[in-house]
Amino acid sequence: MEDKENTSSSYEKLVSQDLTAEDDLPVHRNQEHQVTMSALRPGFTLNHYKMFTVSLAVLALILLVVDIGLGVYYYKLTDGDVVKDISSEIAKLQISYNAAVQGRDDALKLLATERSQQQVTRWEHEHLTARIKDYGNQVERIQMDIATLKSQLPMIREGCRHCAPGWTFLSSTCFYFPFASTYSRTVWQEARQSCQRLGGDLVVLDSRDKQVALFNFINTFRNPSGILHLSGFWIGLTDAEDEGVWKWLDGTKLKEGFWSIGEPNNVNNEDCAAIYPTDNPFMAWNDAPCEFRLKWICESAPRSIG
């Protein structure tokens, strides 16, 4: 019996302690519990749902209006005058583009033609410039020839008195110069025979004054564009009898020569002498093979005047 009473007494104490503990909880904890429960009330959740539904309905309406507007605009583009205007503008632009391309092609062709004509004009200008320069050179040569002939008039008049026709009176002697193109070059022996037929012989240049006079005369008719080794004139000097011993036609040995530097050298059995229109009258002789073909100079004594 005592045990039952003790157990009943303990149970009452525990219940009494739990109630006391619940009464001692803080006030704010109970308030938070109440707020949380009120937030979860069915009325509060329904209001938010209604607002969300209204928002979706408004958004759907806006989208519908935009869709209808785009449809109308597209209809106008496809069936209205806008498409026609755009197509017309595109066609006009295409025509303008084609015209511009054609104009460019025509301009390029014209440019090519002008360039070709310009090149022809440039060639013609170069040709005319060369011709003018050549004419100028010819005029200078003609003027020089005129001046030379004028200077030779007294000599010619004296030649008519002292020399046969066609001969030139120079340095108190009559000389014959076959400058004309009708006279072809010939070998040394034939040149001497030609002089003998005219009453003279190949020239003998045995003095300084005679050398200078003849050198200046042949240089007057010198052709600058001619070949130098073909521009010489045979003179009456040879070493054919005794190699290295040069003699004039009368057998007189050469005392003073007017050889070019390194001459005579007898490279190709060169036994005859010739005078050339060089730049220095005292270095104007070369030895050459007697079979070589050159012009020549004849000499004869002047006629006495009674």
UniProtKB/TrEMBL annotation:
GO MF terms, alphabetically ordered: carbohydrate binding
Short name of any one Pfam family annotated for the protein: Lectin_C
Transmembrane segments: 51-75
Keywords of this entry: Disulfide bond, Lectin, Membrane, Transmembrane, Transmembrane helix
Domain spans labelled C-type lectin: 170-299
InterPro entries, sorted: C-type_lectin-like (IPR001304), C-type_lectin-like/link_sf (IPR016186), C-type_lectin/snaclec_domain (IPR050111), C-type_lectin_CS (IPR018378), CD209-like_CTLD (IPR033989), CTDL_fold (IPR016187)
CDD domains xrefs: CLECT_DC-SIGN_like (cd03590)
Keyword DNA repair: no
PANTHER family noted in UniProt: MANNOSE, PHOSPHOLIPASE, LECTIN RECEPTOR RELATED (PTHR22803)
Protein name: CD209 antigen-like protein E
Species for this entry: Nothobranchius furzeri
